[in-house]
Amino acid sequence: MLRRRINRLCGGDEKRLDSRTIYVGNRPCPDTEAFIPSKFCDNRIVSSKYTVWNFLPKNLFEQFRRIANFYFLIIFLVQVIVDTPTSPVTSGLPLFFVITVTAIKQGYEDWLRHKADKEVNKYLVTVLEDGRSVRKESEKIKVGDVVEVVEDETFPCDLILLESSREDGTCFVTTASLDGESNHKTHYTVSDTEKDLQALTATIECEQPQPDLYKFVGRMHIYQQEQEQEQELVVRSLGPENLLLKGATLKNTKKIYGVSVYTGMETKMALNYQGKSQKRSAVEKSINAFLLVYLCILISKAIVCTTLKYVWQSKAGQDEPWYNQKTQKEKDTNMYLKMFTDFLSFMVLFNFIIPVSMYVTVEMQKFLGSFFITWDKDFFDPEIEEGALVNTSDLNEELGQVEYVFTDKTGTLTQNNMEFIECCIDGFQYRYRDTLSEVDGPVNNQQQNAGQEKEELFLRALCLCHTVQVKEAGSEVLVDEVDGMDGLLPQPEQETGFIASSPDEIALVKGAMKYGFTFLGLESKCMKIKNRQNDIEEYKLLHVLNFDPVRRRMSVIVQNNSGETLLFCKGADSSIFPRVRPEEVDRIRMHVERNATDGYRTLCVAYKKLSAEEYAMADAGLMEARLALQDREERLISVYNQVETGMSLIGATAVEDRLQEEAAETMEALQGAGMKVWVLTGDKMETAKSTCYACRLFQRGTELLELTVRTLKDEDKKRDVKLKELLQEYYKKAVLDAPPVRPGVTRSWSTANQDYGFIVDGATLSLVMNPPCDDDASQNKSFFLQICQSCTAVLCCRMAPLQKAQIVKMVKNSKGSPITLSIGDGANDVSMILEAHVGIGIKGKEGRQAVRNSDYAIPKLKHLKKLLLAHGHLYYVRIAHLVQYFFYKNLCFILPQFLYQFFCGYSQQPLYDAAYLTMYNICFTSMPILAYSLLEQHISIEILLHNAALYREIANNAMLRWRPFLYWTLLGIFQGLMFFFGVRFLFSNPALQDNGQVFGNWSYGTIVFTVLVFTVTLKLALDTRHWTWINHFVIWGSLAFYVFFSFFWGGIIWPFLKQQRLYFVFANMLSSVSAWLVIIILILLSLLPEILLVVLRKPRGHHSQQKKQSQSNVGGNQSPESSTRPLLMRTFSDESSPVV
Amino acid sequence: MMASSYSAKEEDGHHSGPAGLGAATRTRKPDNTAFKQQRLPAWQPILTAGTVLPAFFIIGLIFIPIGIGLYVTSNNINEFEIDYTGTDMSSPCFNCSQNFSWNSTTPCKCVLSFYLDQPFESNVFMYYGLSNFYQNHRRYVKSRDDSQLNGDERSLKEPSKECEPYRTNENKPIAPCGAIANSMFNDTLDLFYINPSGSKTQIPLNKKGIAWSTDKRVKFRNPGGSNPNLTAVFKDTAKPVNWHKPVYELDSEADNNGFINEDFIVWMRTAALPTFRKLYRIIQKNNNMTPTLPRGNYSLEVTYNYPVRSFEGRKRVILSTISWMGGKNPFLGIAYMTVGSICFFLGVVLLFIHHKYGNRNNSSDIAS
Q1: What does the UniProt keyword field contain (chain B) (predicted)?
Q2: Residues of chain A contacting B5 with CB distance shorter than 8 Å
Q3: Are residues A950 and A858 in the same domain?
Q4: Chain A residues whose beta carbon lies within 8 Å of the beta carbon of residue B174
Q5: Domain holding A772: CATH number?
Q6: Interval A779-791 mean pLDDT
């Protein structure tokens, strides 16, 4: 009956495509009539993109999907098809170069992937086949195979654990290569499968592969043969604790057997490594905008030239004078077609204005530049022996543009290094003072004690209600290897080590230990604790109601020796208080709130005796929910909620979480740099507020605007009405009454203004973001946003992970689309890390998920200061300069060529030789700017770090706005005009040599080109503030190379070249004094406005003055200076003002 | 191993480098080298009023004298220019220009007389100038075959496609092919000094040394190696359509005939602008006592072969002496003087600004 029902269910499940059925050992199971051979993919991992055969077409296709490459391809094709002024080589060669380099790089990476794949795929594993162990290549594992894995081996595919060499049916794994968490995780065998794997007949039903590493639902049908009789069907639920993931490593366990459920590309590991969304930086957007401008310039130039050409040709005798007849083909061409090809020819002639090499250089700059972050030894943390990690180099410059910093509290602002401080049992406070004096028992501050019974119940609860594991004695070697979260804590009893997923739990267990209750470990579902009398108590662990951030609590159901079933629950006060008897709450609430204001993390502990019926009901409910394939999570939670009611509160704990090193200094520096710091935490408001004060995010003078459930509580009005009122009030206060802020100067500069801090909690936030009724919703939202934006610091507490992302998104999409940065260390920060423009992961204690999903990872919060203020600032300045310079140098490169058209009958005659056209961007002018963009420090790193306000100078994309762009463009136009007309006037008499011989058009172009190369290089030299030997080498080197190349290029009659246009042109040019003189004066004249501007700008810039002084080591000038600076700035820079 | 190999995939092959590196450095401390820590010793120049002001003054002080020198030099150059296009009725060459036809066998001659009011002391260079002649037109510039001109036998038989429509004539390859060669300037200019007595003395014109020596020696070479018999070498080729005589009859002297004829080489160096001059002849100074061209009356005899009226061009003859900076061109002198003055002026202004505002700046710094 039951079976039939299940069968029906199975059938139904099979038809729905979202589950799969696996036959363990690929043995047909008695129930299903026909054994359907598996049609799952094999265990071959293919991470490579290409094969030898499809590499070329596929790679080329991918590359030409990029808009820039495609544009250059079009230009190239036009050159090939149409009769254009420059040979296809001029644009084909750079394009070919770029494509080839990229292809080689991608090919190499793919080859590495092939190699890695091969290594994985050919790895020999042991598979049980018909009772024998067979060594097989890993790629030949099929779904349903039973695989044997020994200690320290990685799992070849996703396995359901069937049998373990450990007695309790567990095994330990580390998932270091999956998510970087190196702690041991316990996985469990499916019960009833351990007896005889050969005889096991079972099917597994589980969901289709999905990438979430921490989710798995399935169930196992076991057909037990009971002495030739009818088989008995047993159903077991399968969850993530039964699933061993490919890529994880078996630890501490000799051998396990498991049946493969997901293979090859369907393993969770493979599914997880598929593309992360690409973030684009603001600089890239600017580049695209500038590109559009230049494209317009290009097209308008081509149109102007084409039009003028036909106007010019309409005059008699101009189009086809006797000395310059057209070919027959040209004469036959249709007039409109001719016009069109002329237009294309002009496009090709001027196309160098948008250079291929800019993309290459920008990519190279980003790629190479990001090494400096990984190389920085200041980011090296001796504790974890790691430095910074760069996951994407696309966002380097974005680090210099951050306006909003969203930070997590736990583990980010604080150390997540928990220490048990005190507890409160039944309303009485227990403070554990000193390890030395009062080891033997709790101290009662108030000369009162809770009853002995309550006290012990509380401590038992602490000892039982957790998922901590005891590190085995004898595995002491592992202490260093595993994530040593307890190694940092003072360990009173060295032989015990604990492993847990959260440091709070360890702190609590240790706290209980200090009070005399020691948790000894979990053995075959039996928890042992040693009580004060040194007796061992045993509890049978019936169920663990897991912790999750939404429920914010966890429970265990245990059975003690006397057969009583107890439920212990611990969790945040907000999630416990509604579930306990209200009369108990008040006594404890006081303590909890006081602890919270002291900055401690508080947890409340409650318990409940379960009657046999209650337990049976709960047990059944849990079993059912666990077996569900659909909505298992939801069902489980609803069961949990049912069980965890009507508990009685025993007490509360307070755990201290110390601030990260230099957290306050870092925060202050960020605020000084004009960034707004928002703390988004799941923690209590009081705790979070105290952390904010400790971090100096809130100052004493800061007026706090609170928008929380508490302030919304009002008898007379409904919540949303009150919310609106409050919002309007705060809006008036913070936004309207505040004096208008001058752009660039943020509030904290002026001490006269009142600082506001804004506090909002998750519940209220959801009221604002997702209002029940739609009217005023958008107004509320905009009020809220504006209040937030005008406050110096915002604290959002009680946030669910998704709400964090919501906040980030709201700010990100607000007016002006400010650049946001999220920093966090835990899995609950992942959503906001992914959402923000720049995501920073802290290599903290809460696993590696944040790091994996981040763009940059740093070991400590304090490193953020240097990452933003120094690296970010420099990268931004470098790349902004790089971009502007590239557009500028190509404008003054092409402008003379454009002007020349007016003097050559609009015939598309290039001014420069093809070699110069090609080499200009590749060789002559590319290296200096690359070196500049990697090495420039216009302000030294020390000064940047000491003077956070310098960060404001580049805020709002300051160097890539239209004004600087216009400046650079005008400079380019000015110089282009200089180059062309200077030489033009010189050539009014082309007899420039002292032997009376004359120069021709190629000499003209070469003189212009020489002036051009020298000017743009010297312009860069003028801009360079940090001359290392590399800069010297590259700048003077590329000028020397230009001269050398020109001699060489003109020194030989080149075979295979159709025209020897430059033969001895350069040498002859140098033999002319006039050419020298004109080159010198044109370079000087072109640079004159630049020099003038530098000189004129200097006295005005406040910081440049400072820079100068500190750079020239005039140490004494700093102190009078700082007194002029506003108060907030002074507070920290005076503290830390060494003489630079 | 797995993790790093996959991270490459995750990045979609774009930037796996840093990630890979990050994995590599995971276990070791970053190197403490100056380069990696961005602490390379560096020179940090700062452009301040203090450093720039003297530079302005120095530039001003150097450039103004140079400018004056250049200007004076340019002014000291004697240059005389005469237009002989013959568009005017009054011009002696009017008839020649009107009656021009490609097929005429008898050359049209005209004589222009002019008066030099200053003696030309040093070597005099004789240029012909053309206006509105687009030697820099793209179709024109590329219409040549440099390997043919370099004596390549194959290109002589089979000229480059670029030479169209001046590539072949009557199924014979044209040598030299192309529009440039075809339109070679072929007026003959002779200069006579009219003695005060009224008799004419022909002034010897040197036709050597007018082309770039590198062109003459290397870039242009006659085919057939050292074969002195150019007629034989060029026998299977046609002359350019507009030429009156084939290339091997350009000059009587062997080392100035064929492709290495200097007039031809000069013409083949295409001009930069539509108004240009090209060196025609050099009048060598004979002795130190008499000027090369004394003051007086001269007559210029033109054999008018080259039509320019169809494209409204002009033809000029220019007589000029040459200084170390080339021909007469006041531009450089003026430019140097202007820039020098600007720099000097800016220096003064900046000094004033610096003195006035710089002081206030400093005092405010100290006072506060």
Answers
A1: Cell membrane, Cytoplasmic vesicle, Disulfide bond, Glycoprotein, Golgi apparatus, Lipid transport, Membrane, Transmembrane, Transmembrane helix, Transport
A2: 47, 112-113, 115-117
A3: no
A4: none
A5: 3.40.50.1000
A6: 82
The tokens describing B325, both together, are 């900076």
Do residue A966 and residue A1047 come from a single domain?
yes
Nearest to A991 among B30, B270, B327 (CB): B327
Optimal mutation site among B4, B14, B27, interface A, most CBs of chain A within 10 A: B14
Are A1066 and A996 in contact by the 8 Å Cβ rule? The answer is: no
Q: Which chain B residues contact residue A1067 at CB under 8 A?
A: 214
Highest mean pLDDT among A260-269, A1125-1134, B83-92: B83-92
Average the pLDDT over A347-368 and give the result: 84
CA distance A975 to A889: 10
User: Closest to B212 (Cβ–Cβ): which among A113, A1060, A1068?
Assistant: A1068
- Tell me how far apart the alpha carbons of residues B136 and A324 are, in angstroms, rounded to a whole number: 11
Q: Is residue A1104 part of a domain?
A: no
The percentage of chain A sitting over the pLDDT mark of 70, rounded to a whole number, equals 81
Same domain, A911 and A881: yes
Task: Give the pLDDT of residue B277.
Answer: 93
Exposure string over A955-967, b if 16+ CB within 10 A, otherwise e: bbbbbbeeeebee
Q: Is residue A449 part of a domain?
A: no
CATH number of the CATH domain containing A559: 3.40.1110.10
Task: Compute the distance between CA of residue B130 and CA of residue B108 in angstroms, rounded to an integer.
Answer: 19
Pick A291 or A987 by higher pLDDT. A987
Cβ-based contacts of A1021 with chain B (< 8 Å): none
- Residue A140 and residue A244 in one domain: yes
Distances (CA, A) of A1060 to A309, A1072, B162, B217: 28, 21, 14, 14
Q: How confident is the model at residue B268 (pLDDT cuts 50, 70, 90)?
A: very high
- Per-residue pLDDT of A130-147, as tens digits, reads 777 888 888 888 888 888
Domain extent, residue A664, equals: 382-413+659-737+754-868
Q: How is residue A466 annotated by DSSP?
A: S
Same domain, A863 and A875: no
- What residue in A sits closest to B62 (Cα-Cα)? A1081
SS3 (DSSP) at A629: coil
A246 is in an annotated binding site: no
Q: Has this prediction a pTM greater than 0.80?
A: no
Range B258-264 average pLDDT: 92
Q: What is the ipTM of this complex?
A: 0.91
Kindly state whether residues A646 and A526 are assigned to the same domain. Answer: yes
Q: How many residues does chain A have?
A: 1140
Q: Which of A868, A900, A924 is the last residue of a domain?
A: A868
Q: Are residues A259 and A152 in the same domain?
A: yes
Is B49–A1022 a contact, with Cβ atoms under 8 angstroms apart?
Answer: no
Q: How far apart are CA A172 and CA B2, in angstroms?
A: 20
* For residue B67, pLDDT beyond 90: yes
- pLDDT above 90 covers a percentage of chain A that reads 16
- pLDDT of A273 reads 57
* Helix (H) or strand (E) run with residue A384 in it: none
pLDDT tens digits, A832-843 = 888 888 989 888
Pairwise CB contact (< 8 Å): B210 & A996:
yes
- How near does any CA of chain A get to the CA of B162, in Å? 9
> Measured on CA atoms in the order A834, A835, A840, A843, is the torsion positive or negative?
negative
* Nearest-CA distance A345 → chain B (Å): 12
Question: For chain A, how many structural domains are there in total?
Answer: 4
From A671's Cα to the closest Cα of chain B, the distance in A is 25
- Known catalytic residues of A are 408
Residue A1036 domain-assigned (yes or no): yes
* Final residue in a domain of this structure, among A656, A684, A710: A656
Inter-chain contacts counted by CB atoms under 8 A, chains A and B? 364
- Residues A851, A948: one domain? no
Task: Specify if A330 maps to a domain.
Answer: no
Supply the pLDDT for residue A901. Answer: 94
CATH, residue A259:
2.70.150.10
The answer on whether A334 is annotated among ligand-binding residues is no
List of residues 6+ apart from A199 with CB closer than 8 A: A225
Quick one: pLDDT at residue A715? 64
pLDDT tens per residue across span A603-621: 888 888 888 888 888 888 8
